[in-house]
Design goal:
With 209 residues, the protein is an alpha+beta fold. The chain has 2 domains: 104 residues, Ribosomal protein S4/S9, N-terminal domain (Ribosomal Protein S4 Delta 41, Chain A, domain 1, Orthogonal Bundle); 86 residues, Structural Genomics Hypothetical 15.5 Kd Protein In mrcA-pckA Intergenic Region, Chain A (Roll). 41% of the residues lie in helices and 8% in strands. The longest helix is centred in the N-terminal third of the chain and has 16 residues.
């Protein structure tokens, strides 16, 4: 599957705010936003024009894509699915994105970023309900159990993770056994509990045209 392979710090600079795409680096002085909070590319000397409503809506849609590491076609599929569900489309979209397996692995603290979580899933280190899976886009559901493959528990990364996992915060819709590194989906995420950096309403308006 195609994926973005460029410098992710450029995506934060393009959005004009931190999207926390590089894990712990985002909290260091090396963060690109802290060092030079300007859009990437050649800087123009003339004053930038004010963004139109369409431009603002596009920026919110791109920000959501960048945050979850999804390309346009797959993001559109998620939006279409959210649109068909009962309720507020923007909230439905956020819940669907949060339910992705790579995001759940990230939220459990098994990875420092969603990109790293996606790699962990892709490499077959994660076991879902007792079965190995390597599909980052799998939509978890209430009662699902996420753990590590037995062979992966011998890896150095896993051993280091066990030493640092206590310091990480797990959202209320998930639970984590820090001794065995086993997580569980207690309920579907509530949009109010998710600190979204994008405006779901603006995304709906963007696709409504």
């Amino acid at each position: 599957m195609a994926r973005y392979t460029g410098a992710v710090c450029r995506l934060c600079r393009r959005s004009g705010e931190k999207l926390f795409l590089k894990g712990s680096r985002c909290f260091m002085a090396k963060c690109a936003i802290d060092r030079r909070n300007k859009p990437p590319g050649q800087q123009q000397t003339r004053r930038r024009q004010r963004l139109s409503d369409r431009g603002l809506q596009l920026r919110q849609k791109q920000k959501a894509r960048y945050t979850y590491g999804i390309l346009e076609n797959q993001f559109r599929i998620f939006f279409t699915r959210a649109e068909k569900q009962a309720g507020v489309t923007g909230d439905n979209l956020l819940v669907l994105l949060e339910r992705r397996l790579d995001n759940v692995v990230y939220r459990l603290g098994f990875a420092d970023s969603r990109a790293q979580a996606r790699q962990i899933v892709r490499h077959g280190h994660i076991v879902l309900n007792g079965r190995k899976t390597n599909i980052p886009s799998y939509l978890t559901k209430e009662g699902d159990t996420i753990s590590w493959k037995k062979e992966s528990t011998e890896k150095e990364y896993y051993k280091q993770l066990k030493e640092t996992i206590e310091a990480k915060t797990v959202p209320s819709w998930l639970s984590l056994d820090t001794q065995n590194l086993v997580g569980q989906v207690l309920s579907l995420p509530n949009p109010d509990d998710v600190e979204a950096t994008f405006d779901g309403k603006a995304i709906v308006e963007y696709y409504s045209r």
